Amino acid sequence: MAAEIGAFHEVMEGYLPDIVVGDTEGLLLEMPPNLYTDRLATFEEVTGEPLPFFHLDVDWGRTDWPTAAAALGANLTAAGTEFGLFYIGNLSDDSDRAWVELAGERAGAFEEARRECLPPRWGDRLCRSPRPQS
């Protein structure tokens, strides 16, 4: 995958020299967050530079999502990749207000987990994510 993305990036730079290629992936149930850390390390080996950005689309049914997302974000940021997370409500929410409120609650849960994941001095340690609960 990294080799294909690297080749795509190289071709696109020929047409659009200022192009920025990143990735959006899902954090699904039972998926270890370090899977993406490993893939992006391979991307950097292939292209010679870190992936510029990575956006995470969370499976909200995953009970450990705040901790897993925060750990992944901290590890990718430490490796030079900008990290973002999609905050959304549920399709089943009965109003726009309920959807926005749930999205806000999720943003707050992520930011709280992210603060707990930050090392005292940047680079002292990488965050660890517990295994997903069934």
Write the topology of this structure.
Layout: H1 2-15, E1 23-27, H2 34-47, E2 53-58, H3 65-78, E3 82-85, H4 96-117
Parallel strand pairs: 1-2, 2-3
Description:
Helix 3 crosses helix 4. It is built from four helices and three strands. It has a three-stranded parallel β-sheet with strand order 1-2-3, covered by helices on one side. It has one domain. The protein is mostly helical and 134 residues long.
Which features does this protein show?
globular, 134 residues, mainly alpha, disordered C terminus, 48% helix, three-stranded parallel beta sheet
Overall SS class: mainly alpha
User: What's the order of the H and E elements?
Assistant: HEHEHEH
- Count of distinct structural domains: 1
User: Could you give a short account of the major beta sheet?
Assistant: 3 strands, parallel
Low-confidence stretches: 120-134
Strand content: 5-15%
Brief summary:
By secondary structure, the protein is mostly helical. The chain contains four helices and three strands; from the N terminus they run αβαβαβα.
